[in-house]
From TrEMBL:
Signal peptide: none annotated. PROSITE patterns: GNAT. It comes from Phaseolus coccineus. This is N-acetyltransferase domain-containing protein. It comes from the Eukaryota. GO terms for molecular function: acyltransferase activity, transferring groups other than amino-acyl groups. Residues 6-178 form the N-acetyltransferase domain. InterPro entries: Acyl_CoA_acyltransferase, GNAT_dom, Plant_NAT.
Length: 379
């Protein structure tokens, strides 16, 4: 039986928006069938990137597939002369359930990779949950991607119980120019560090950058001096571009939530933090550029996370705080998170030109101990 013909074309704002949103609702999105509400802008996840595109597949005047991609310059080790490479990120691949196994997904990926190649992209990469075997097999077996990194996604609920931050710790907001200087100096060699970090810091979704250090320790000086122990992070307000809602909770999560609430009602004196309602639309803060220096900086990272929690608790829409770190990063011991909600991610990568092929084997088989920088524009 012959398949019906379909065409691949660029997304057209007003005329395609309703059909794309309907397609998203009909496809499983994220863990436990969470629902992502783009608030009328299907391109919201890529719109803040330097270069981006959205392609759709159309068959019989119906949109049956969609894919998004973006391009940027990042730090990639083993990539001379300056350890910088142009990479393309694949995200948002969706195919209508009744239109699968007809080559639509393959055609969308192929056309996106052609766009990457026409813009001199050296590597294409994608991210998915480590347990999403269907997606992993699809990209590795059909599109020849290779496992690259296994970052960890840390999630912490926001409640209305404010943390008391140690009086021995100073937390200060730094100007964009200072933040850019610190990031380039201390994280410029970090894997996948974006060359346009200044654009991220100046974006309206970036709420600011904060540093923490111990009172009485040396302050941040104009000559580049930093304290013996210090930490920094920035915050991105994802809730301004899309909302999440948990469509079907895992049984363990639901039981834990109910038990937690029951204990809180029976023993109010315990003052347990209240759990947010994940079944109604909510936004979240994403902590990025988390960095620490010095022997006691772990305590400073935790204080910064508590500061962000207190800031988020004043927002009616923010219900969780998310960050993503390298799989072997020691920061996991200092960033508050719930193991029940957190999970491991998987990045897969593919070379797109002959020059990249010469370095690809070394790149994909190197387990870097350096912190991974996760661009908040790709969340």
């Amino acid at each position: 039986m012959a398949f019906k013909k379909f065409i691949i074309r660029s997304y057209e704002g007003h005329s395609d928006r309703a059909q794309v949103e309907d397609l998203e609702r009909r496809c499983k999105v994220g863990p436990s069938e969470s629902v992502l509400d783009t608030m009328g802008d299907p391109m919201c996840r890529i719109r803040n990137s330097p270069m981006y595109i959205m392609l759709v597949a159309e068959m019989d005047n119906e949109l049956v597939g969609v894919i998004q991609g973006l391009i940027k310059m990042v730090t990639v080790h083993t990539h001379p002369p300056k350890d910088m490479a142009k990479v393309g990120y694949v995200l948002g691949l969706r195919v209508s359930p009744h239109s699968r196994r007809k080559g639509i997904g393959s055609s969308l990926v192929q056309r996106l990779e052609e766009w990457f190649t026409s813009n001199d992209v050296e590597y294409a990469y994608m991210a998915t949950e480590k347990e999403n075997h269907a997606s992993i097999n699809l990209f590795m077996e059909k599109y020849c991607y290779t496992k690259f990194r296994t970052p960890t996604i840390l999630i912490n609920p926001v409640n209305h119980h404010l943390f008391q931050i140690s009086s021995n710790i100073e937390i200060a907001m730094v100007k964009v120019e200072e933040a850019e200087s610190l990031y380039r100096r201390f994280m410029g060699s970090t894997e996948f560090f974006p060359s346009d970090i200044e654009n991220i810091l100046r974006n309206k979704l970036s709420l600011g950058t904060w540093v923490a250090y111990f009172k009485g320790d040396s302050d941040f000086g104009l000559d580049g001096q930093v304290p013996n122990s210090w930490a920094m992070l920035s915050v991105w307000n994802c809730g301004e571009i899309f909302k999440l809602r948990l469509g079907k909770a895992p049984l363990s999560c639901m039981l834990f939530t109910k038990s937690w609430s029951l204990i809180g009602r029976i023993f109010p004196c315990m003052k347990l933090p209240t759990l947010p309602n994940f079944f109604s639309p909510f936004g979240f803060y994403f902590m990025y550029g988390v960095h620490q220096e010095g022997p006691f900086s772990g305590n400073l990272v935790r204080a910064l996370c508590q500061f962000v929690h207190n800031m988020a608790s004043r927002s009616e829409q923010c219900k969780i705080i998310v960050t993503e770190i390298g799989g072997r990063d020691d920061l996991i011991h200092h960033i508050p998170h719930w193991k029940l909600l957190s999970c491991q991610d998987l990045w897969c990568i593919k070379t797109l030109n002959n020059e990249g092929t010469n370095k690809f084997h070394e790149l994909s088989n190197t387990q870097s101990s350096i912190t991974l920088f996760v661009d908040p524009r790709e969340v």
